[in-house]
UniProtKB/TrEMBL annotation:
Residues 1-21, 356-375 are annotated as: Disordered. It holds the Pfam family AAT. Residues 138-352 form the Peptidase C45 hydrolase domain. InterPro entries: C45_proenzyme-like, Peptidase_C45, Peptidase_C45_hydrolase. This is Peptidase C45 hydrolase domain-containing protein. It comes from the Bacteria. It comes from Streptomyces viridochromogenes.
Amino acid sequence: MTGRTVLRITGDTPRRRGEDRGRRAAAAIARAWRVYDELFATVAAGSAGSAGSVASAGISGAARSLEVRALALRTADATRAWAPELVEEMEGVAEGAGLPFWTVVALNARTEILAEAGAPRAGECSTLVRTGLRTTGGQCWDWHEELAGAWHLQTVTGDAQGFAGITEHGILAKIGVNDAGVGVLFNILGHAEDAATGVPVHLVARQVLGTAGSFAEAVGILTGAPVSASTVITVVTADRAASVELAPAGSAVVEPDERGWLTRTNHFLDPSLTAGELRGRREPETYDRHRLLTRRVLGHPGPLDPEALVKLLAAHRDDGAEVCCHAPAEGTLGSRWATLATVAVDPAERRLLVHDGGPCTAGPSTWTPLTAPAR
């Protein structure tokens, strides 16, 4: 079992839940912010010389800087118009942690800010879901090795739904499952129109986990969210699953294939959104991972339990695609990707299993169970 911190967040108002999070994780949030502050600047500087990056990212060609504060506050304004309670919760985090409000927003909007900076995404996440009599699923969560210590497990109560999951320090939610048996899995996409003008995708996931009481409600929240950066959030319940692709150009719901499988990496599958595909054109390894996993699930007739999940996801470069990602020993911030966690979700049980690291190191004794608490 992992030794990760489990934050048990409580509070009968958004601000109180935020204050509770901020107080409990103040030092960790500050450390995460310092890494992200450096990452934003590093990516912006590295992208400043590429074609179109100066105009799209708001980067000064001379100073090669990114106006993170302004971008963060712009996403806060969009969030306030859509779900003001999420802004209240972030205000509470800032107060509890003793940090400026905009830095907490920047953490929650890190996907949007990195999109503005033109961040490369070599690596990233792979997801598998199997529907049927009992829907189950899971994923690798890939991110920068320098942020391997900047995430935690959590349970959250006080909203319409209690939920459990994993997230980064200061970010309200990411991957999880709630007390109504609604789970979300998370893969970043890339669209040519991505920017930091809308509601951050991590806050959209938080809204689903905290308020959705059914599959239909979760899909409705996702398709109605005014996002400005792209992601696919896969909704899983005991008897259903679908991937909801979100982009500035719109949203699309992708159903499981005829065998009940959903296989997701980091490119759009819906034809109406593929015209704006950015990630796959820049880094086609997402297609390699998708092809490899699709072949593997075709040969897997049984249920998708945690043991099967890790076997399917434990693929490295020699296997044809790096699903289980390992950071190189050398390199700079922004270039060292690793699978930081492996997550299995069983929505019928309102439960997650979390392994600290990639699927190739997971075993029966390495999983930490988390059950969604009652409201």
